[in-house]
Amino acid sequence: MRRTAKIISVAVLAAAAAACAPSTAGNAPSTATAKALPGPSLDASFDLEALVAAAKKEGSLLVYDSSGDIEEVAKAFTAKYGIAMEGVKSDTPQTAEKMLREHAADNVTIDAAMYEDGGVLVGQLAPQGVTQTWIPSDLKDQIPAENQNPLLALSKATVFAYNTKLSPGGCPVKNIWDLTEPEWAGKLVMQDPLGKPTVLSFFTQLDAHGNQALEQAFQAKYGKPLKTEEKSAAYEWVKRLAGNRPVLTGSDEDISGAVGAPNATDKKIGFMSISKFRNNEDKGYHQSTCEGMAPFTGFSYPKYVAIASKSKHPNAAKLYVHFIMTEEGVKHEIGEGGISGNSTVKPLVTPAGLSDWQGQLFHTDPKGLLGDLQNRQNISDFWRVNKS
């Protein structure tokens, strides 16, 4: 039931987006949009102490996030400001659906959200006035211009990981095309892309600016150029991956358990969030990034912070945005690895096997977020057709 709900949510959002965006057929430019993305707002005379005082008068705050780390952020926020903050873990499609319905009903309970689905944010929620971007004036110069609208709170990563106990010599997969070979059939464990917008975005971004790297990796593995009847190398790789019987789950925790648990006996590769590397210490797991995998070991994805336009606690929501854009707030989200949207906040941890964040990962292009949304239905249908 849960997996079905996720699939329905993605389809509903994609259909709604299609209604308010130009045709997704062909190569529609990713910068085209029926409604312009509203600019971010700043307070002309920003006073943090005054904001804290106003937020305290409002009394409470509710923030949704796809990560359970939001609960630790909430504890830290409440301890610092004395304002009761509740952090709720919710899958991104469900959060978007709830915010849309609350906005339409003028009954808003979610004050702010940490949002991984940049496509829906810039293509639907922000243009329709459901959310707004607010930038703390005192931190504006610390946030690169390209990350201000929508406001990038942090970047996380999903990587190919392996069991270090079962493969002490290193990751048994050296090339991303290895995962399409019969020897790895049924041995890749990943979240179902139809319920995971970041994975769908990875696929569409690969098609937008990753084809050359995929073609070079193919040449390196097989000693010949890639020939395909599909529209691109990215679509060919997705087709082969889908047809190689990947094991689909509903959570990264399930992936981590299947790959790195102490009692695991079968070598599997997990495509999972680096946040699950915490299980090495917490649960005695044996897992690490597939370091050196060509052409990349995974992908980074943005997590944005947005305020509900009709929030009943707007000052508390602004204070939360300020908090998460500082090391004191974001450290709870990047404690197992990640990069803050504030350029002055340095990485806190180097995830196992991921020593070079910039060089080892495929990176989401923020200019392609709307294109991700426009092409989502196409790649979703393509996955369904080819999934064995």
Please describe what this structure looks like.
- By secondary structure, this protein is an alpha/beta fold.
- The chain contains 15 helices and twelve strands.
- Mean pLDDT is 91; it is low at 1-34.
- The longest helix is centred in the N-terminal third of the chain and has 19 residues, at 2-20.
- The protein is globular.
- It has helices at residues 2-20, 48-58, 70-81, 92-104, 118-125, 197-209, 211-222, 233-242, 252-260, 279-282, 314-324, 327-330, 357-360, 369-374, 376-386, and strands at residues 60-65, 84-89, 112-115, 131-132, 152-163, 188-191, 247-249, 269-273, 287-289, 298-308, 339-340, 362-363.
- β1 (60-65), α3 (70-81) and β2 (84-89) form a beta-alpha-beta unit.
- Strands 1, 2, 3, 4, 5, 6, 7, 8, 9, 10, 11 and 12 form a twelve-stranded mixed sheet that branches.
Write the SSE topology.
Layout: H1 2-20, H2 48-58, E1 60-65, H3 70-81, E2 84-89, H4 92-104, E3 112-115, H5 118-125, E4 131-132, E5 152-163, E6 188-191, H6 197-209, H7 211-222, H8 233-242, E7 247-249, H9 252-260, E8 269-273, H10 279-282, E9 287-289, E10 298-308, H11 314-324, H12 327-330, E11 339-340, H13 357-360, E12 362-363, H14 369-374, H15 376-386
Parallel strand pairs: 1-2, 1-3, 6-7, 6-8, 10-12
Antiparallel strand pairs: 3-10, 4-10, 5-8, 5-9, 5-10, 5-11
Helix pairs in contact: 1-4, 2-11, 6-8, 8-15
